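User: Predict the full complex structure for these chains.
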Amino acid sequence: MSWEPKQLPDVTPESREYWAAAADGTLKIKECEACGSRFHYPRTLCPDCLGDTRWIETDGTGEIYAYSSSMRTQSWPEEELPHVIAYVELDEGPKMISVIDVNDPELVDIGTRVEVEFRATQQDDVAIPVFVPVE
Amino acid sequence: MSTDRSVYIAGAYEHPTREAQNKTQEQLHAEVARGALDDAGLASSDVNGYLTSGVPEYTYALVPIVMADYLGLEVNFADGTNFGGSSYPAHVKHAANAIRDGMCDVCLITFGGRPRSRDDDESGTGTRPLRILQDSFERIYGMNIVSMYAMAAKRHMYEYGTTAEQLAEVRVAASHHAQFNEHAVYPDPVSVEDVIDSPVIADPLHLYDCCSVTDGGGAVVVVSEEIREQLDRECVEVLGEGEYIKHQNGGTIDITSTGARHSGPAAFEDAGLTPDDVDYASIYDSFTITVLETIEDLGFCEKGAGGEFVEDGALQAPDGELPVNTDGGGLASNHPDRGGMLRTIEAVRQLRGEATEEVQVPGAEVALVHGTGGDISTRHASVTLLLGGEGR
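Assistant: Here is the predicted structure of the two-chain assembly.
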């Protein structure tokens, strides 16, 4: 089955461009103009040095750093389980939490190469990044 | 007030309930406050410092004010540090500092939670309200606290070869201890096979790798040297403290270790002790992996060797190499949303020689308490306390 969003994120002045870029098919992260640090989730000032930051486009690719298949949880509809929560280490550096959208959790392992896809929401300017194994 | 820097835990009380449908959360606080003050031989009018923090049904920042009102306390010092499950060991440290600064000499710390009886809004729809800003990048995917700890376990297995059987040993030790605790919610001993055969909740964690869900609470009373001298009760000295907030660090986080790597050495240095000096350890056991990573990070074994360390009953009292959570811990005895207070109380029991007979560590003189509040895959507060018995 395909992973479908169940709720909208809080879109804030700090994150609006992130969600809008996702709706346009791009995964963006932040880069510090002062120290060059690249980080996720987005913040206006750099968590390394509190310097100013800019958005950069990523390739949307990376590898799985850690994952877990949720078999039983109150926080997701039972008929859509299991679903695979993961930390993806982006090729640009930072690790980000997401889901690996696969029918078969056996396809997922630490080190598996993945690429981003985007799942639409009811709001035109908000989409949710998920990852799938690279064919 | 006090000029001596020695500070003591003079009273400790764990609520015997594990299900409190007909009690309010505030009532639990009051009942444990009375229990801990009675244990110390003090009255509520003696209290001049108060520390507490909220649990999910009651989280806003006014908590110490609201609860001081409810309890009728007259205090010159209050602290509402909210570190989740590690709040209460942190409160012991903060109370000790306030007493050393002369702000007060009798600090009451209360905790109560009723997740078992609370109406839960996690209805299976995935629409739990977003609570913190990070939820928009994490919770919206449908993860929960189990899956977050499960990712850490998965990575620890990958890097260090840790096995599900080794994680299970942590639960086996907890259940071994719980069989002697008349209040434990899960008093039946379990085997490694029982843990492995229990349903997978979030791979690789099984049901028995996860802590219990109970209603309950606890309280401790922290006092100055001058107050201690007036009391008949055996007291436990606060020897050293350390705290550290570990987080994602912009996305460079290593989830195979915890903030204990920092809070532990800080506490040991503060006390002038080493891991070899510890006779008993209360280690927050939200999940089996929490204990395993913490044991490594506190220096009881090399990083990555935790799986091997916990084999062969190392955590089991009275004879194991490092007896841990002799009340059965959060895994098998009691976990009312947060575990740090109850970990502290069992350490006090051990140092007073008042643990259950079958699990009392003979001659226990130094105990370690470690709290992990938050989750080890994203952000948490680690707090380490070292406590000493009177015979020391």
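The first strand of chain B starts at residue 7 and ends at 14.
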